[in-house]
């Protein structure tokens, strides 16, 4: 496919995906479309025993490298004003996962053209359910990535202009934990607080104290965060309730800080509860670990991107999470931010990814995969001409 044809194909595919967003685990139409396009391009589909998502492979025997795109949209009503805006009411590709899928398809087409020369195999993962996290773990549980020597993914960035790549070694996105705390006291008449244990006052003290957790326990140069996002207690004006429920999230960039925050939060909740004569029940739900780029493969990816003409910047770090981190727990991986033009942030109804970044993104993914195969096969200057 010549460059002009590939560019148009990617733009058309992206526009179709953008106008047909589906939520996590509901990506049936998206999956069918991707499988149809991969088959059209004679790319070998692999069985992926999941209800949505797809996997494909290019190459022959030898080392294995993986490329991953997520494919789900968000429950947002689009307000981008694009001619190819969402046709699915209340659903939007507001995180650019449509861009990721289209760029990965482009990489597949480019790699297919060089298949006979590849010194190994590239496995393409179109992953469901990144936003409602768990998709990456489900893919890993299938065993489809067994033996991968490296894994790469791009993510759209509305903070970077087209032609720019944001990439740094080490942690770039946060570990995401969720917690629910239930304070139990003793309900009583509002006029006789002495006869009960007031969980509302207890919860208020805890919420204030919690805001010292990061500032008094973590290195001030590290990025950590704890937020209470829901408080629920009581149902009338003259009764002190029996229980108060709090929900929130903790974000951290290292395993050590993650453990510290979890342990200190437990100690603080139990300590405050004991001080007030109540008790605390804590349900801690661990999400993805920090997205952490392998230093060696990051150097490699930066060199490939430079050769492809990308302007390089440090990764735009965030305390949002990314389930790509689950892959990085098992394989060395690189998660890079590709500039898709300045726009409203990811998850905004006005988010836009500029299709001009599609072809460079596809080329970069293909070159990363081919170069990584070369590196794993002992030929560190192999590029497959990509
Ligand atoms: Zn997102
Ligand atoms: Zn995303």
Describe this structure in words.
By secondary structure, the protein is an alpha/beta fold. It has two domains: 3-173 and 290-376, Zn peptidases (Aminopeptidase, 3-Layer(aba) Sandwich), CATH 3.40.630.10; 175-286, Alpha-Beta Plaits (2-Layer Sandwich), CATH 3.30.70.360. It is 34% helix and 25% strand. It has helices at 3-19, 28-40, 97-113, 135-141, 199-210, 213-217, 255-276, 295-307, 324-330, 358-376, and strands at residues 44-46, 54-59, 64-70, 121-127, 148-157, 164-166, 170-173, 175-184, 188-189, 224-233, 239-240, 243-252, 279-286, 291-293, 311-313, 333-339. The strands form four sheets. An eight-stranded mixed sheet has the order 1-2-4-3-5-16-6-15, with helices on both faces. Helix 1 (3-19) packs antiparallel against helix 3 (97-113), helix 3 crosses helix 10 (358-376) and helix 8 packs across helix 10. It is elongated. The two termini are 14 Å apart. One zinc ion (ZN) binds next to loops.
């Amino acid at each position: 496919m010549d460059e002009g044809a590939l560019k148009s194909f990617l733009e058309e595919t992206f526009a179709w995906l953008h106008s047909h967003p589906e939520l996590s685990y509901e990506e049936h139409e998206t999956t069918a479309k991707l499988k149809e396009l991969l088959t059209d391009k004679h790319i070998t589909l692999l069985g992926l025993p999941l209800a949505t998502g797809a996997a494909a492979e290019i190459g022959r025997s030898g080392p294995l490298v993986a490329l991953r795109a997520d494919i789900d949209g968000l429950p947002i009503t689009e307000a981008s004003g694009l001619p190819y805006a969402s046709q699915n009411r209340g659903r939007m590709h507001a995180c650019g996962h449509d861009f990721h899928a289209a760029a990965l398809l482009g990489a597949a087409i480019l790699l297919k053209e060089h298949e006979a020369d590849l010194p190994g195999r590239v496995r393409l993962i179109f992953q469901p359910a990144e936003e409602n996290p768990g998709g990456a773990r489900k893919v890993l549980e299938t065993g489809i990535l067994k033996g991968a020597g490296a894994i790469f993914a791009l993510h759209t960035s509305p903070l970077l202009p087209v032609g720019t790549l944001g990439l740094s070694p080490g942690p770039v996105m946060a570990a995401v934990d969720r917690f629910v705390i239930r304070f139990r006291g003793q309900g009583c008449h509002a006029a006789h607080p002495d006869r009960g244990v007031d969980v509302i006052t207890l919860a208020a003290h805890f919420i204030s104290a919690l805001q010292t957790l990061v500032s008094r326990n973590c290195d001030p140069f590290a990025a950590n965060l704890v937020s209470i996002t829901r408080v629920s207690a009581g149902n009338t004006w003259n009764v002190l309730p029996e229980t108060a429920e709090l929900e929130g999230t903790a974000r951290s960039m290292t395993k050590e800080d993650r453990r510290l925050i979890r342990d200190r939060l437990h100690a603080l909740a139990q300590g405050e509860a004991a001080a007030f004569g109540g008790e605390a029940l804590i349900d801690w739900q661990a999400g993805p670990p920090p997205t952490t780029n392998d230093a060696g493969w990051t150097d490699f990816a930066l060199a490939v991107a430079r050769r492809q003409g990308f302007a390089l910047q440090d990764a735009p770090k965030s305390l949002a999470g990314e389930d790509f981190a689950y892959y990085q727990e098992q394989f060395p991986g690189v998660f890079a931010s590709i500039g898709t033009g300045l726009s409203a942030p990811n998850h905004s109804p006005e988010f836009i990814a500029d299709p001009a970044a599609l072809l460079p993104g596809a080329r970069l993914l293909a070159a990363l995969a081919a170069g990584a195969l070369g590196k794993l096969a002992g030929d560190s200057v192999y590029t497959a001409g990509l």
